Structures are given as structure tokens and as C-alpha cells.
Amino acid sequence: MNKRAGLGPGTVRVGRFVGRLGVVSLPAVQVGLDLDERVVRRHAAKLEAAGWLGRARWVWGEGSVVWLTGTGVQGAGLGGVRAVKSPPAPTTIGHSVLVGWSAARAEHRGRTWKSARELELDRERWAAPMRCERGYAEQLPDLAVWLTPSTAPAAVIAESGGRREDRQKVILEGWRDAIWSGRYAVVRYDCTSPSVARWITRLAKKAGLTDANFTAAVQTTAAQIAALPPAAADNNDEAAATDQPTHSERSARSTDEERQTAPARARADQATPGSRSEPPAPDPDAAVAAAERDRRYRELFGIDDPKPRRRWRR
């Protein structure tokens, strides 16, 4: 039992998960910690009664969203993490809900992860420098997820597609440099929609990121996360299968790219010197048959034969 607030270890565990993320939806807490909905609501009610928890309704089908107060952050043993400004702004809630599902996926699979709030405590180590209008700025991923203990973490970013294209491309170049420097192993974008995922993928290719170190996918749902098996500590194949796009996603992407690039390749092949085939020679029999069909058509519909044009005379 927590002596200061009379809270049990299960309730404190829920509080720590919330506090690490800042703002999170209760359904994401339920899926990430593999708890029943009623159990999560009961823990949240205890945290709120103890003054640890703030709560707000969320109108986009995500249930209630919650965050820890300053008292809750201290009580959950997260003293180095800053408390959320209460009440959070709608934009903060929207982004944090998206990040919460990424954290729920990592937690459900048993992976080691840190939120941006935790990475902020060692910003010099985890922040990636990126170009901006005033020179360079540093940016942290929304999550750092370790696929294996002995490798650099994956940078996970929640993306709703609200940035300008030129700014987004510069950010992707910054993550590319962070991968090249060894700070992060790969980068994954969890997007709000398929169109955003395609947009990010297109810009990532322009920035020099490849399929080996980059993926963009639609954010996983509660049902998809619940169906994922636990990740083995040393199973790289399983990590790649879960944290990279599924076979169906890659097939769909490959099909779309093939449809887009096939006409361009065909035009390029036609324009290659020396590769153009000679046009077939005219068939005299085909010309005679066409003239006969035209004569019969005019005869059937009573159309007079065209008169020869008179030459212009001076």
C-alpha cells in the first residue's frame, strides 16, 4: 500500500503509466496494461479521489482522457517528470491520445520504452538536431522503443499531418541524420490516416530514408494491439514483423507504387534511343478491305460518295 495516499500497487501502476505519457486515454491504459475496463475505471477513480489524477471527456470515441497532477507525479515516483498543465489544450490532447496508443502497443508487447517526457531528462543524449528557420533546433521523438536491449532504440513519432510539407521534409532529414549517427536505429511514424502515411512515406524517400530504417503506418487500433503476441527479448524477426509494416501494408504500398511508376517506366523505355521497334509495314489487303467496308456503309445508308476536291486556281 502507498502510505501517503492509501493506494495499492495496481493503482500506482496505472498512475505511473499515465504520468510517463502526460495525457492518455483510458482505453489505451486498458489495452497497454492488459486490464479490464471496469478495473481501469476503478483505479482512475481512486487516483482522482486522492488528488493524483485530472480527467476530461474526449469526444472522438476515445473515452475519458486523464493526466497526473503535480501531487500524482511525486506520488508515483516520477519526480523528474514535469506535471501536465491543467487542463491540457485540445491540440495537446489530440496528439497525446495518438502517442498513447503507440505506448500501449509497446507496453502490451513487453518492450522497454521511454516517452518524450522521460527523454527530456537526458535531452543531450536523445534530442536530434534539425534545421529550422533560425539555424538548428533539437527535437525528441514521442517515444523511444527498444526492439532489442543491445541496439539503439527506434524513434516513434505520432503524426496527424498538420505541418507544412517543406518543414516536414526537414524534420525527416533530421531523423535520417540521427539514424546515420547511431542515436536511433529506425524511425516509425504512427499516422492518423492512410493518406497521412502515404504523404510521410513520399517525403521520407525524398529525405533519403529507406524501407530498412523507416516506416509509416496507420496507428494500430485496440483490437490490433490486443492480438499482438508478446515480443521475445532476442527475437529480431518478431520485432521486424510487429514494428514494421505488415505484409499486406507492404503489398498495398508496392502495388500503388507499381501503378504510379509503370507508365513512367513505359515512357522511359519508349524514349530510349535504339530500343524503339520499327512500325509494321502497311498491309495492302487490309487497305482494300477497309475501302470495301466504307463503300458498303455508304451504300447501305444512302450516303453519296465524296466528290474530289477542286484544286485552287489563281
Given as residue ranges, the uncertain stretches (5+ residues, pLDDT < 50) are 236-242, 244-280
User: In terms of structural class, how would the helical and strand content be classed?
Assistant: alpha+beta
Bin the helical content.
40-55%
Termini distance? 114 Å
**What is the makeup of the main sheet?**
5 strands, mixed
Instruction: Count every beta strand, where a strand is a DSSP E run of 2 or more residues.
Output: 10
Return the string of H and E elements.
HEHHEEHHEHHEEEEHEHEHHHH
Outline:
By secondary structure, this protein is of the alpha+beta class. Helix content is 48%, strand content 15%.
Description:
By secondary structure, the chain is of the alpha+beta class. 48% of the residues lie in helices and 15% in strands. The protein has helices spanning 9-21, 26-32, 37-49, 70-75, 90-108, 116-119, 123-126, 165-180, 194-206, 222-226, 236-243, 247-271, 284-300, and strands spanning 23-25, 53-57, 64-68, 112-115, 128-132, 135-139, 143-146, 154-159, 187-191, 214-218. The strands form three sheets. The chain has a five-stranded mixed beta sheet with strand order 4-7-8-9-10, sandwiched between helices. Strands 1-3-2 form a three-stranded antiparallel beta sheet. Strands 5-6 form a two-stranded antiparallel ribbon. A hairpin with a 7-residue loop joins strand 7 and strand 8 (154-159). It starts with 8 loop residues before the first helix and ends in a 14-residue tail after the last helix. The relative contact order is 0.08.
